[in-house]
Amino acid sequence: MSALRARLPPIGLAAPIALFALFFLAPFAGLLERGLRDAGARAEMTSGMALEALALSLWTSTAALAIAVAAGTPVAWWLARARFRGKGAVEALIDLPIVLPPTIAGVALLTAFGRNGLLGEPLDDWFGVTIGFSTAAVIMAQLFVGAPFYVRAARAGFAGVDAQYERVAHTLGASRLRAFLRVTLPLSWPSLAAGAALCWARALGELGATLIFAGNLRGETQTMPLAILGAFESAAGLTAAVALSLLLLAAGLVALAAFWLISARAGGDGA
Amino acid sequence: MTLEFAARARLGGFSYDAAFSAAREIVVLFGHSGAGKSLTLQFAAGLRRPAEGRIVIGGVPAFDSRAGIDLPPQRRATGYVVQDLALFPHLSVAANVAFGMGGANRERRLGELLDLMRIGELRERRPRSLSGGQQQRVALARALARDAPLLLLDEPFSALDESLRAELRRELIRLRGELALSIVFVTHDLREAHLVADRLAVFDAGRVLQFDARERVFRQPASRRVAELTGVANILRGRVARAGAETLTVETGGARLRAVAPPGWRPAAGEAVDVAIRAERVNLRRLDAGDPSRPNLLEAAIAEEFAYGASHTLRFACSLGQPVEVEIAARPYEVLGVAARKAWTLELPPEDLHVMPVAPSPPPPSAGGSASATTA
Hints:
heterodimer, A: mainly alpha, 81% helix, B: alpha+beta, Rossmann fold, CATH 2.40.50.100, 2 domains, five-stranded antiparallel beta sheet, 9 helices, 22% helix, globular
């Protein structure tokens, strides 16, 4: 009796919990219901445009994650271990894209890396490299909005590993890299995995910055969110948008589930 | 010589300047917390960098500020057990111990070490699931696994209960013998220091006040401060009345005490000195048993008494102007009938009275911030 009572929320919380659940579950139910009912939706899912956009979304967001991990891991470790003046400012700067509206991020990226941008112009003049409105721009937009999630989580993960373990590893003959790989990394693995999942999910859903900085070119910069927006405004309307949304949702869920399985196994070996 | 150590550093307001050595022996760094003992180990292991100095481990210069040598920790031949042990929580006992091992004969050597530390059964366990004493042995095995000639132990037994401490101390003394190691052992526990030390370095405020064989430090402290730190209960300020070749006569608190002349130091008549005698070295005699021809007899009365079970500590009021503390084992306490009697004669044997120079006031810390320690 008491065990059952412990599992049930207090009666006063029942109403907000029910409302909250309804609010968050209803949109998914709506998507599913519409997708199942509407025969046209299933056809839209396998259209060339949809599959092209899905493939682009999947590989660009994965590329963005790879860059975020490769470059963000050392930065996060350094932020977790170093003590210096203005560290708070550096951390705030890294967190900034999290709170920045994506459209602003797109405009900002354009002013930096666009053809007439701060860095984009010399790149174009000296090397003939144009970033704006290319697949590279898609990845950069995703990296810009997604990487802070990874760095933030990794920093917290590294900070949670007592530096004493690294010092002891050094006294046992381990180089900095070996100490990191054999001690710090396995101990902070859950945080890194969570940060990576957030970063990837954020990159996958990126719309505003991509639209402004990379444009909406089918096969080149048209990722799923852009395709959904396009479909919604097209003749097919909501039907196509529902179809693409379900497709992206399913792909995202499968990828995240696979990711969690792999990281749980890796974490289980390590910890 | 397994370790030659000399380092100077300045950390904030703390000035550090220490030197000692170790040659196939257990050297105890003894002192209060904050005296610089742990810092010494960090300097030796390479986890912190002194401003200047020279540290040679197993014949190899690990740090030499003049020659510009500063080996990173991983290239110094030390095994280091930090105070909190820091066993890797995600690795098994075997993986923890094998962490610092080289490739050749790894399995065989791992087995030997686990046997040596009697943790073979714990191979696959995680540190979390081990008792304090087991964790201690794993940490020791892990530090030994590098086959380094020098073992650095930072208060290794502080978290353990008394029975485990005793067992591990025995183990340590056995290891030093079996593996021909030098061990630098940090502790603030006087009894522990006495039990394990071959030589003792007494630390105070970043300085080594005395570095000597254990018995020398305990019987012949170099200064009043060393005597205080090593638990000498009775320290009297006096003046040399007569300085003979073998004995000194010291005037203190209106009494004249005869003391054996300290080795390697000859105070002049009239010089101010400190005289120390450990509480357990003072003899208790019945008043009527006093022989006036014997030196250093004092009439005294028990003012305070503390019973510790195995021994009693008695504080006597006497003519010296300060109380004299006497420690007496439980058995003689009963045989003498101390409980029933307040007035006694105290005998301070001349060979147990140790005369020390009055410490000159410590030199002011050198000015300027050039000397500073940095984390490596």
